[in-house]
Specification:
By secondary structure, the chain is of the alpha+beta class. It has a single domain (2-232), classed as Alpha-Beta Complex (Creatine Amidinohydrolase), CATH 3.90.230.10. Helix content is 27%, strand content 28%. The protein is built from four helices and 15 strands. Strands 1, 2, 4 and 5 form a four-stranded antiparallel β-sheet that branches. It is globular. The two termini are 13 Å apart. Bound molecules: 2-amino-4-trifluoromethylsulfanyl-butyric acid and cobalt (II) ion.
Length: 236
């Protein structure tokens, strides 16, 4: 999983060099497919419950599971690229949000806070803590920032399957839920909105948008729980 995660992290780094006004998320998706293939890996999302692409590309008010599109990105957009890498049967899952050129102060604040929320959640992923400790840390910080936590989607266990137990919500009470143990691998993937927390699914059956059109951002890492603290498997 570390091997899959390192490749995924390097792929995000390459995406970061390519995201700019005029580039389409379809081109980014093509790049990812090729990059993974060249490195002996496959995009696990493609074909997962019929999902048609290697990546999810979620622009502005899209919360998650957006389809890559030929529409070029424009200055001021924010876009989340999410993917799951399969390398020799083991998986890693990570999403980053990117700013397209210069973005508004609100967008910058949302991106920074969402990444910070992820790291506050990761810090709670230690043996003896509970799932709710992760959730509570994220929700408390997001609320203090005046941001809303999406409730309809959650992190998850991961290994040879993309979605394994446990479910890892990003809101909830400290001290509740499953106890975390050494050796568990899971994702934490908060989605924060500038406006209301609610999501609505589009006619394609996948694209989840904010109900009020407000911006949404997401950062996700896959981690392993050890006695020495969490190992972020999707870091370089
Ligand atoms: N990577 C997503 C997650 O974090 C899964 C996207 S759904 C898929 O769980 F169908 F696109 F795979
Ligand atoms: Co995930």
């Amino acid at each position: 999983m570390r091997d899959a995660g390192k490749l995924l992290a390097s792929c995000h780094q390459e995406i970061g060099k390519r995201v700019r006004p005029g580039v389409s998320t379809w081109e980014i998706d093509q790049f990812v497919e090729q990059y993974l293939r060249e490195n002996g890996a496959t995009p696990e999302q493609k074909g997962y419950h019929g999902y048609p692409y290697a990546t999810c590309a979620s622009v502005n008010d899209v919360i998650c599971h957006g389809f890559p599109s030929h529409e070029p990105l424009v200055e001021g957009d924010i876009v989340t690229i999410d993917m799951v890498v399969n390398r020799r049967g083991w998986l890693a899952d990570s999403a980053w949000s990117y700013a397209v050129g210069k973005v508004s102060e609100d967008a910058q604040r949302l991106l920074r806070a969402t990444e910070t929320a992820l790291f506050l959640g990761i810090a709670k992923a230690v043996p003896g803590n509970r799932i709710g400790d992760i959730a509570h840390a994220i929700e408390t910080f997001a609320t203090a920032c005046g941001l809303a936590v999406v409730r309809q989607f959650a992190g998850h266990g991961i290994g040879r399957e993309m979605h394994e137990d446990p479910v890892v919500p990003h809101y909830g009470s400290a001290g509740r839920g499953m106890e975390l143990r050494e050796g568990m691998c899971l994702t934490i993937e908060p989605m924060l909105n500038l406006g209301a927390f609610k999501a609505q699914i589009g006619a394609d059956g996948w694209t989840a948008r904010t109900v009020d059109g407000s911006l949404s951002a997401q950062y996700e890492h896959t981690l392993a729980i050890t006695p020495d603290g969490p190992i972020i498997l999707t870091a370089l």
